[in-house]
Amino acid sequence: MPEDRTTGGRAGNLPPETRSFVGRGHELAWLDAVLDPDDGHGRPVTLVGPGGVGKTRLALRAARLAAHHYPDGVWLVELSPLRARGLVGFAVVEALRLHDRSTRPVAEVLCAWLRDKRLLLVLDSCEHVLPDCAGLVRAVLAAAPGVRVLATSRESLGLGSELRAEVDPLPVRTDCLAPPGGPDGTGGDPHGDALDLFAQRAGEAAPGFALDASTADAVAAVCRRLDGMPLAIELAAARLGDLTLERLDERLRESLPSPLDLLAAEPGRGELRHRTLRTAIGWSHELCAPLERLLWARLSVFAGGFDATAAEEVCSGGPLPAALIAGLLERLVEQSIVLRHRTQEDRYQLLDSVREFGGDWLRALGEERALRLRHLDHYRRLAARGCAEWNTGSQVLWCERTLADHANLRAAMDCALSERDTAVSLCAAADIGFLWRHCGHLRDAQHCLDQVLTADPQPGPDCVRALWARGAVALLQGDLDGAARWAAVCATAAREQGEPVAVVAAAYLTGSHLLLTGRLAEAVAVLDAVEPLPVRDDWLGAAQLQVRLALSLAHQLSGDHTRAREVADEVRDESARRGECWAGAFADCFVAEADLADGDLLAAVPNARAALVGHSLLHNTLGVAFTLDVLASAVVAVGDGRRAARLLAIGQRVWELVGRAQMQSPDLMAARLDRERRVRRKIGEEAYATAYEEGLGMSYERGVAYAVSGAPSR
Questions:
Q1: At residue 8, what are phi and psi to the nearest 5 degrees?
Q2: Distance between CA atoms of residues 123 and 75, nearest Å
Q3: Could you give the CA distance from residue 383 to residue 264 in angstroms, rounded to a whole number?
Q4: Parallel, antiparallel, or unpaired: how do β-strands 163-166 and 45-48 relate?
Q5: Which helix (H) or strand (E) holds 69?
Q6: What string of DSSP letters covers 448-459?
Q7: Is residue 573 classed as helix, strand or coil in its secondary structure?
Q8: CB within 8 A of 388, min separation 6: which ones?
Q9: Which of 47, 489, 494, 549 gives 20 to 30 Å between its CA and that of 267?
Q10: Beta strands of 119-227 (E only): which ranges?
Q11: pLDDT tier, 536 (very low <50, low <70, confident <90, very high otherwise)
């Protein structure tokens, strides 16, 4: 089967096209030329135009068509959910799945990682973070000659090297009607694109609708009145489920001034299009029932996607009871005001222009602050439940929920900080920071925890939890000096609190710092002295298991493999009993290491693979990197040196995503070098170099899948 040029089967995160693409043949041809990395210009390309003109869909279509040029993938970075400055780099790191755990400036991390890559970055909706975008793009393109940037914005980035293209509305003509679906898959006649779009969306709202001689004039009139703006056309076409085409045309004539009237009043064409779209969205708003309008306004507080439960909890109240929200939400979906999420059927989202309109109405109603606080309360409760149930069989579900609602958790945290209520922001940061630490968002966790902990928070359980999370973040970042400072402060706060399990949790930070700095005997003494208490279901229970994990690793690195296995088996049994996965996956890995030390090779490989599966379920990149090193040792021990070399290379790529190889631990780095030497001796330098290069060429997903599988080497 020939390769699909719109995807290429390559790395990347472009969402699937859920609707047909209409028109834009000339624009796509131009973009195909300028996005060819072999032309040597290396300049960023920005699609500029008002909201609703179709910049995002055009960019995504062009990116799919250009994917075959970029072996390292095409990556979409959605910037519209960002509510605070300084987060563009965070969003790019997140989109690229770098899970960087270092403390270096994010721009430096990105430039270093991208330096030898050939990939396309699509920065969508830059207008509200233009300075940050411009600075990052300038730095990335200077450091990484194989990277190209395609941006969408209502304004240009302001870079001297920028290639800027105005995205115009779709043309409207009826004299050259042609059936949709031209030979290039981009639509029919280029002069009938607006009509083609209307016809396709109308057919979805009113099955059986056809664009023909009897409907073409009315459709053209509608499209002209909407100035060919794609979003306005889609909103109008969605109304054919309730209105006839004639009534739709009539209602638009009553509600909208003609384009000629607007042109006479407005000298700027861009302002005209903005006003046309706003008026068209306003017309759709007028056709909504009162409670539909109220829900629309209240939904504007969400960042990124949301589910029906969140909508009910945040948006209900007053004249809008929770019991009605699910039905009203479906009505807004039918009218194309709310969209179903591209990849998750049970989640929803608003387009930027539609959300902005709703936000204006929310402010006009005087409800904006109240709804933002309700949004904050909902996600605070969500994070608190996640921490309370983390050490249970619900752990994987909480990880998935944390990742799905990352933008909303970030917005809630921004709201808490802006309210300047130190007790609320401390509690929110402690819970959200804990979840982010365990789900791979270390930079976000560091950012919010640093802001609340520098404000001299009141002592108590929330403070201890925040200090523990901050110290745990520093450990995974390889920031060993920082980890020592946070460990000392957390230990003092835990003793003052007087909660025995909090004292146990603090010992994890102290013992792990000693372990990672090579002071193994001291680490064993601290960790082994911890009082054995019943393991809890909440975040403290997770810390209890992590104390035992650190003790197992300290024994392993000290050469006491028997004791290392005993402690790892304890954790593995407790993890299995609870159904938790985070600690259990590390325990599987440590048991695999003990198997290797004991010469039980038949057990080492499956135990290491089980660890990989567990880490993958929780998107734990550090755990994956750590386990790949162990699995490589097990695989070479059973005689498959080529596979081991590939695994070492895959592991190296994952350590690059993590940021600091082997967490800067001298013992772990020495173990890695010893593994490499053993594989080289087994298969020779030439075979090692070939297999290693093959492993480096695998994407993260493909590499992990290869590691988990038992397919023989070739």
A1: 70, 0
A2: 9
A3: 53
A4: parallel
A5: none
A6: HHHHHHTT-PPS
A7: helix
A8: 537, 538, 539
A9: 47
A10: 119-124, 147-153, 163-166
A11: very high
Tens-place pLDDT, residues 448-498 = 999 999 887 889 999 999 999 999 999 888 788 999 999 999 999 999 988
Element (H, E) at 219: helix 216-225
The token pair at 32 is 């195909």
Q: Which helix (H) or strand (E) holds 698?
A: none
Q: Give the residue carrying structure tokens 């563009």.
A: 88
Question: Taking the CB of residue 274, how many other CB atoms lie within 10 A of it?
Answer: 20
**Side-chain half-sphere exposure of 586, counting CA atoms within 13 A:** 24
Q: What average pLDDT does the segment 112-130 reach?
A: 91
**Integer Cα distance of 292 and 320 in angstroms:** 9
Distances (CA, A) of 140 to 13, 137, 150: 19, 5, 13
Helix or strand holding residue 434 (H, E): helix 422-438
240: nearest Cα among 287, 306, 273:
287
What does the alpha-carbon distance between residue 539 and residue 527 come to, in Å, rounded to a whole number? 18
85: amino acid identity, one letter: R
Q: Counting runs of H as helices and runs of E as strands, what totals does the chain give? A: 33, 8
pTM above 0.85, yes or no: no
The two beta strands, 306-307 and 163-166, are unpaired
> In whole angstroms, what is the distance from residue 322 CA to residue 316 CA?
5
Helices (H), 498-519: 500-516
Contact 98, 653 (CB under 8 A): no
User: What HEC string does 662-687 produce?
Assistant: HHHCHHHHHHHHHHHHHHHHHHCHHH
Regarding beta strands 163-166 and 119-124, do their DSSP bridges make them parallel or antiparallel, or are they unpaired?
unpaired
Nearest to 355 by CA among 371, 343, 344: 371
- Chain centroid offset of residue 199 CA: 34
By residue count, the chain amounts to 714
Residue of 474, 452, 542, 475 whose CA lies nearest to 502 = 542
First and final C-alpha spacing in the chain: 24
Backbone angles phi, psi at 324, to 5 degrees: -90, -15
Q: Where are the alpha helices (DSSP H) in 529-581?
A: 539-558, 561-578
Q: Look up residue 239 and give its DSSP letter.
A: G
Q: CA triplet 615, 616, 619: central angle to 5 degrees?
A: 90
Q: How far apart are CA 448 and CA 359, in angstroms?
A: 25
